[in-house]
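Hello again, I could really use a second opinion on something today. I've been staring at a protein lately and its backbone has me curious. Can you walk me through what the tokens say about the fold? Take your time with it, there's no hurry, and the full record follows here:
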Amino acid sequence: MTPPRVVIADDHPVYRDGLRMMLASTGAVEVLGTAADGLEAVALAAELRPDVVVMDLQMPRLDGVAATQRILERDSGIGVLALTMHDDDESVFAAMLAGARGYLVKGADQTEILRAITAVASGEVIFGPALAGRVTRYFARLATVRPPKEEPFPQLTAREREVLELIAAGLSNRQIAERLVLSPKTVRNNVSNVFAKLQVADRAQAIIQAREAGLGR
């Protein structure tokens, strides 16, 4: 099996060079080049077309999130592994939304980094042990959030829905006019519009539809 081809992007030269030497020494990956900022990372990814870009998030000229977006816009087949000092939710999910397939915090050992690079190169999504639980809980929370309930009778105006609510509550046109401080003629027009839009012939049918939708209770 051919070793994954990697580009390293990090603005700290000591960490960048140390990571390059560590990865190269294992023989498990092929380091094609290194970049000192996001713009260099984008250019190198376009030129060398690596399997994986190991991407720091906080870099000058262009940050790692924006660089990830640009790289994947040009070549969605490249895997991006975020390797950063930051493990806050905002950074993690910004990288994910940009398209990163992996996220590790600096301090991860050689085995973790190699495993993550291999996983990302093969199309998997991977997070360090400290982050995996938080990511799982985040998506579990999203799954339990119910979408907002759709307003019944969207074809009605706000005033017409208000009139229908009062019809369903059993009020007469005169009582509706008094309640809403409207003229009887205005109420009659609104009631006629409601009947037409609900395609009902009379007040009784309108009340049935409205109460089935939860109005007037």
